[in-house]
Write a structure and sequence with these properties.
There is one protein chain. Strands 10, 11, 12, 13, 14, 15, 16, 17, 18, 19 and 20 form an eleven-stranded mixed β-sheet that branches. A six-stranded parallel β-sheet has the order 5-4-3-2-1-9. A five-stranded antiparallel β-sheet has the order 21-22-25-23-24. It is about 30% helix and about 20% strand. About 50% of the residues are buried. The protein is of the alpha/beta class and about 700 residues long. The structure holds alpha-D-galactopyranose and zinc ion. The site of zinc ion has 9 residues, from helix 6.
């Protein structure tokens, strides 16, 4: 059965290629040259107007669209499309001077001066009205323009504001949520340190000059910031919809940016987009480069973006053509890496490859940031040729538009869980290693070409065979029941140490952990958790004849839960310390399914062996039925009938892959491939079955 999504916009049923384009920094003569170069670069989508407010409204109420009219027409004449931005990410100086309330106030209550970008209040009625007006003008003027493809809302929404209006809005949000102060005081456990509130007006957002120790407050503030940002974004969308009801909207997200819960924003977007800036070729502490590990980490984030709208293709809104100027070292991409990293996004579900930026600006902060067109101004550069090469490759992959993947495996990475976990003082300080743990579990699937969805705990689990929930510290209402139902119906759960500790208010479940139904599902209870210092290790010693055929021993780091088995079976025990011999890995048969508990943070070999056994036993979907050499990734997209497998070599050396008797056509070269196939350094092949 066909299983595809419509293209981002029906008028362009192709993969999109292009970048942030700032004609407002240049003169019409340069625009003509840009059009010539765009064709040579095989670019068909330009993101225009992202920071163009001053060029669009140079004085209050005086609008100057002539330059943008010309650019939109030129794009259309050249068979290219506009990803047209709303300019709220940065405002003109006159706006800040006339309405100082639009400037952001910091947690220390100091109002910012005009400057930078993203420096605006999320609540200010004036700012909302001004953004509404400029958006409506853009929509009225360009809503039916043949070049308009999609709206690019603002730019990388982020940050928070502590002005009087934002604080009042926070209090109103709390009142709507809790109804009574008693309910709030209970949820925030304010009897602690005599923090009981007796009036709504006493509540302030967390601040280094005020309150930081009330975890429920910290959590609600973060939720509020997400809601207020979403509300701000919806105001922007409403303006666009008045004149352009059928043009899709997106905004560029920032991967696992901790400041906003993207699961709350995604439902308001037609398409998800994100900005990806990996540090390719960066040497680690030992001086060795691990692009393979990095590739898996980037894949994890691509998969979040695909999962945010249930599998719908996303947009790689920004990436760099070569060197990123804000990194410690602006390292240029080694030959081959540009095509590889670009197509990796497509492999994981992007229908676009876009860059920051088209043309290097001449002055200011980003004048040395990688671009398609360098200051030299012509096309005879390595980077330009690499970009054009990606463009020709994307033109050969038209059949992939709208296709997706339906994985059997999901990993839970949950923003609110991250917030609460990392806010807690204990069992370690600061970052608890949650994101890292999720990425390490993910790696075991990536290594064997097993597609994965990365979801939050509110999503539907029933469509998966395997649900991996590392460090599920927070369990919001109903989540434990849904996990129980998933396992009961035959699903396989993998849970770890430090799970089921707190409820949605960051209040600890009484009666021991894991709390709620998780205890019954996992068949264990944990009495203590031992946190290890960096460099310390324990051991996981598998029982002989364990069902997973784990051999071990494996190293264990960071955390060791000391658990008691209730209904579960012990598969491995600790090798050292006073808790040697106590359970380190258990499995509980619950209903038709199985629930594994990893009491400690096992090393990569442990995760690899564990998931290798589970993937084989459960016959989970693999992108390619082949043994992948180290550093070679395989990722599937399908339209429900035809399959397209991206095979990508992240090694700085050639690799060979045995496809067995299966035969494929490489869509990039037209070659028919079967048996042993040689992959060059950073090579990509797209195998159509
Ligand atoms: C972000 C922004 C862009 C640009 C790039 C530079 O992603 O959205 O405007 O500043 O960083 O890497
Ligand atoms: Zn404010």
């Amino acid at each position: 059965m066909k299983d595809t999504y419509p293209p981002i916009n029906g008028k362009a049923p192709v993969l999109l290629h292009g970048g942030d384009y700032n004609p407002d920094q240049w003169t019409p003569g340069v625009w003509e040259e840009d059009m010539r170069l765009m064709k040579l670069a095989h670019c068909n989508a330009m993101s225009v107007g992202i920071f163009a407010w001053a060029a669009l409204e140079p004085a209050e109420g005086r609008f100057t669209f002539d330059w943008l009219d010309r650019i939109m027409d030129m794009l259309a004449e050249n068979e290219a499309y506009a990803v047209l931005a709303t300019p709220s990410g940065a405002r003109p100086a006159w706006l800040a001077r006339t309405y100082p309330e639009v400037l952001r106030v910091r947690a220390n209550r100091q109002r910012n001066l005009f400057g930078q970008r993203h420096n605006h209040c999320l609540t200010s009625p004036v700012y909302r009205q001004k953004t509404y007006t400029i958006n409506a003008k853009l929509a009225e003027r360009y809503g039916n323009h043949p070049a308009l493809l999609i709206w690019h809302l603002s730019n990388e929404y982020n940050g928070e504001c502590h002005c009087d209006m934002c604080r009042a809005a926070f209090r109103a949000w709390l009142q709507a949520k809790y109804g009574t102060l008693d309910a709030l005081n209970h949820a925030w456990w304010t009897a602690f340190w005599s923090h009981t509130y007796s009036d709504w007006g006493e509540i302030d957002p967390p601040s280094e000059i005020g309150e930081t120790s009330v975890h429920g407050l910290n959590l609600d503030w973060k939720r509020f910031v997400t809601d207020q940002t979403t509300d701000f974004m919806r105001n922007e969308i409403a303006a666009l919809r008045t004149y352009a009801p059928n043009v899709p909207v997106t905004t560029n997200l920032m991967g696992t940016f901790p400041g906003l819960n993207y699961w709350k924003m995604a439902p308001h977007l037609d398409v998800v987009a994100w900005d990806s800036y990996p540090r390719w070729h960066k040497p680690g502490p030992e001086g060795t480069v691990d692009d393979i590990g990095l590739a898996s980490e980037v894949a994890f984030v691509h998969d979040i973006n695909r999962s945010l709208k249930g599998g719908r293709p996303f947009m790689l809104m920004e990436s760099v053509t070569s060197a990123t100027n804000w990194m410690d070292a602006a390292k240029v991409k080694r030959p081959g890496m540009h095509a590889l990293s670009s197509l990796q996004a497509v492999a994981h579900g992007s229908d676009t490859v876009q860059y920051f930026q088209w043309r290097k600006s001449r002055g200011s902060a980003e004048k040395f940031h990688g671009a398609v067109v360098d200051h030299v101004g012509h096309e005879k550069t390595r980077v330009f040729r690499d970009v054009a090469d990606v463009g020709t490759k994307l033109e050969k992959l038209g059949d992939i538009v709208g296709t997706t993947v339906r994985p059997d495996v999901a990993i839970i990475y949950d923003w609110e869980n991250a917030w609460a976990l990392n806010d807690a003082q204990g069992p370690r300080r600061g970052d608890k290693g949650y994101l890292d743990a999720c990425k390490r579990h993910y790696r075991a699937f990536w290594d064997r070409g097993v597609p994965v969805d990365v979801i939050d705990m509110d999503q539907d689990f029933t469509k998966y065979k395997v649900l991996v929930a590392p460090m599920l510290y927070m369990v919001r209402p109903g989540v434990d029941e849904r996990i129980a139902a998933f396992v009961k119906a035959g699903g396989t759960l993998v849970a770890t140490y430090w799970s089921g500790i707190v409820d949605e208010n960051d209040l600890v479940f009484l009666g021991g952990w894991p709390g709620g139904k998780l205890r019954k599902v996992l068949g264990i209870w944990a009495e203590e958790i031992d946190a290890l210092y960096p460099g310390e290790a324990n051991q996981i010693v598998p029982d002989e004849d364990n069902v997973l055929c784990l051999s071990g021993p494996y190293a264990a780091h960071d955390y060791c839960d000391l658990v008691h088995v209730q209904d579960a079976e012990v598969l491995a025990t600790y090798g050292q310390d006073f808790y040697a011999g106590r359970p380190a890995l258990t499995v509980n048969h619950y209903g038709e399914g199985e629930a594994y508990y990893l009491a400690t943070n096992g090393d990569d070999r442990f995760l690899n062996d564990l998931y290798g056994a589970l993937c084989a036993d459960l016959d989970v979907l693999r992108s390619l039925r082949a043994d992948l050499p180290r550093g070679v990734s395989a990722q599937l997209r399908s339209d429900g009938e035809r399959t397209f497998v991206f095979v990508m070599n992240f090694n700085a050396q050639p690799a060979s892959l045995d496809l067995g008797t299966a035969s494929y056509t490489d869509l990039l070269t037209g070659e028919v491939l079967t048996g042993v196939v040689e992959l060059g350094v950073y090579d990509v092949k797209v195998l159509a079955a």
